[in-house]
Amino acid sequence: MGISQKLEPYRRLLKLAKRPGRSELSLSIKICFIGVVVIGAIGFLIHIAGTYLWEAVYGSL
Question: Which of 4, 7, 16, 59 would you label with 43, given CA atoms 20 to 30 Å apart?
Answer without folding.
Answer: 59
